[in-house]
Write a structure and sequence with these properties.
Layout lengths: L1 H46 L5 H6 L5 H11 L5 H11 L15 H37 L6 H15 L3 H15 L12 H30 L2 H8 L4 H12 L1 H25 L5 H11 L2 H29 L1 H11 L1
Helix pairs in contact: 1-13, 1-14, 5-8, 5-11, 6-8, 7-8, 7-11, 8-11, 11-12, 11-13, 12-13, 13-14
Amino acid sequence: MAGTDVAVLGAPNTELMRRTARAVVHRALGLVGSLWILLTAGFLMIHLVPGDPVRAALGRNAAEELVQARRAELGLNDPILTQYVRYLWDVPRGRLGESIFTGQSVATTVRDQFGASLNLALLAFALVVVVAVPLGVVAGALTRGGRRRQFELGFTTGSIVLATIPSFILAQVLVYVFAVKLEWLPIAGAAGLSSYVLPVVALAVTPAAILTRIVRVELLAVLDQDFIRTARSKRLPVWWLYCREALPNAMTATLTMAGLILTGLIAGTILVENVFSWPGLGTSMVTSIRQKDYPMVQAILIVYGFGVIVTNLVVDIILAAIDPRSALKRGTVEG
C-alpha cells in the first residue's frame, strides 16, 4: 500500500519534469529557428534592394576595372547562394566584414555605437516602469468598483491619445518646444546628462501610456477576487493591500507587456536617434541604408533582432519563475 502511494505521489513530479523538459527543448529550438530567420531576412532584405553599393561608394566616374576589383574583394560577384552560405558561416564567428564606404571593421563600429543605443533604450524603459506602475495602481484604486467615472473617462482618453503619438513626431515637438523655443535642453548629440532628457522622454511617453492602462486593468481584475476581500476583512493597511497583495498578482500580464515594450524601445531608437543625431546604431543604420552599405546594415539588423529575441527569452524565463504553469502550458501546446 505504501509503495502504491509513493508511485502515485511520484507520478505528478515525473510528469512535471517531462513537461518542463519538453518546454525547454521547444524554447531552445524556437530560439535557433528565430536566429536563422533573422540572419536570412537580414541577408535577403539587403541583397534584394536595387543598386550597386560599390558604384555608390566609389562614385559614378570610377573606372569599371576598379569597381569590379572591389566587388570581387567583397565577394559580391559570387553566386547569391555562395554569398548566403559564407554569410551564415562568418556571422556566428563574429566576422561581419568591413564597411564598403569607410573601410573600417563593422564589428568595431557596432561595438562602439551599441552602448549609446542601449543606454537610451534602458533609460527609457526605466522611466516607463517608474511612471506607469504607480500611475496604474493609483488609477485602479481610484476607479475600483465603478467609482469616479469622470476621472476614469479622463484617464482613459488621455492614455489613448498619448499611446497613439508616434515617438519620432513627439521627438520633433519636444525639440521645437524645449530646445528651440525655450532653449532649456540641447537639440542634438550626447554631450552630457541633459542630452538624454528629450530622447528618453520621446521614447517613453507612448509605452508608458500603454503600460499604465494594462496595470490598471489587471489590478481591477485582481481587486475583485476573493482573497482580496479576505484581506480587506482583516483590515490590513491600504498600502499593504495594494502593494503586497494585489500588485504581485497583477504582474504576469504586466511583465509580458513590459517585455514587448522593451523590445519596441530597442527598435524604436532608430527613428528617435535620427531626430536627435544620437551617436548610436539607429543613426548609422539609416545612413548605411541610404549608402547601400551591406555589411553595416546586416550587422545592425542582427544586433537589433538579437536584442529583441534575447529580451523575449528573458521575459519568458521571468514569467516561468513567477508562474511555472505559463511555461508548461506553452510547452504543452507546442508539443
